[in-house]
Write a structure and sequence with these properties.
It contains five helices and 13 strands. The protein has about 300 residues and is an alpha/beta fold. It has two domains: about 260 residues, Nitrilase/N-carbamoyl-D-aminoacid amidohydrolase (4-Layer Sandwich); about 30 residues, no CATH class. Strands 1, 2, 3, 4, 5, 6, 7, 8, 9, 10, 11, 12 and 13 form a 13-stranded mixed sheet that branches.
Length: about 300
């Protein structure tokens, strides 16, 4: 039995790092008061989203997103704030001459895992370099993996984590409503619809617990859709914030949830890499040609 209380935050984060860390501290304490063992905060929580956007409270100014050292004082402060809670959070990273849209997972007094956003949409490539891998890692609440926003639109991203043993996938986003044809009602916006569908489908197709944290509110020309959530491995929505700032909280017996979801049709076990086009295979995955009628699970199927 591995009963875990998950929490996912919807909030807006700007450029001022002290303000961001203060807000993070309040969310950690609120999550702790609700019994959370894992807390997910959005993409770009520390320092706000793209430098090409100006804050809503000062639309005439442009300020660079602060680039943080992955082992710098802000991350050390986050480790301190998290204590024994597992906390996943987004920030902009500087590594030598490279810049990344990054996420870090901390807990138990240390950095547990990292992720650099691999898929960069639209103009984001002019602000960041792309990450190159998806990695699952062990934490006090189980084996998890992280994605950032646009990563989740590619099924290979979450599938890579699931095959690597991730029981929980945490996706951190700054996902906006449509800019070309926005809905009058944010909850009915077509980009909000996509955001929610990806969360539920990725949980179901990989049979993992899915924790999704998103920014909310207006930042520059973007209106973020919020609706942070926790999704069961069977695709059922367990809790969500809706279009307002807030925290979604749900308790899941992870071991039992995965067992029940996978006891009949196990999507990882039943994969057939031998039948897929080579471009659909994960990096390094062998193509195992099987004799006709052989129903054994192919090598590499997880």
């Amino acid at each position: 039995m591995n009963v875990v209380t998950f929490a996912a935050v919807s909030d807006l984060f700007g450029r001022d790092l002290d303000e961001c860390l203060g807000k993070v501290a309040r969310h950690i304490e609120a999550a702790r008061a609700r019994g959370a063992q894992l807390l997910a905060l959005p993409e770009a929580t520390l320092g706000g989203y793209l430098s090409t956007l100006s804050p809503a409270d000062d639309p005439g100014t442009m300020s660079d997103t602060p680039l943080l050292d992955p082992d710098g004082p802000e991350i050390a402060r986050l480790v301190e704030l998290a204590g024994d809670m597992v906390v996943c959070i987004g920030y902009s990273e500087r590594d030598g001459c490279h810049r990344y849209n990054s996420a870090v997972c901390v807990g138990a007094g240390e950095v547990l895992g990292r992720h650099r956003k691999v898929h960069l949409p639209l103009s984001e490539g002019s602000s960041y370099d792309a990450g190159t891998r998806f990695t699952a890692f062990d934490t006090p609440v189980g084996r998890i993996g992280m994605l950032i926003c646009y990563d989740k639109t590619f099924p290979e991203s979450a599938r890579t984590l699931a095959i690597a043993g991730a029981e929980v996938v945490v996706c951190l986003s700054a996902w906006p409503m449509s800019r070309t044809n926005p809905a009058a009602d944010l909850a009915a916006d077509r980009w909000r619809y996509r955001f929610d569908v990806y969360d539920e489908v990725r949980a179901l197709e990989n049979q993992v617990v899915w924790v999704s944290a998103n920014q909310v509110g207006v930042f520059g020309s973007l209106t973020f859709v919020g609706n942070s959530k926790v999704v069961h491995p069977n695709g059922t929505l367990l809790g969500a914030t809706g279009s307002d700032p807030g925290m979604a909280v749900a308790q899941v017996d992870v071991d039992d949830a995965l067992r029940v979801a996978r006891r009949g049709m196990n999507h990882l076990r039943d994969r057939r890499p031998d039948a897929y086009d080579s471009q659909c295979l994960l990096a390094g995955e062998p193509i195992i040609r099987q004799p006709r009628g052989d129903a054994r699970v192919p090598q590499g199927a997880g």
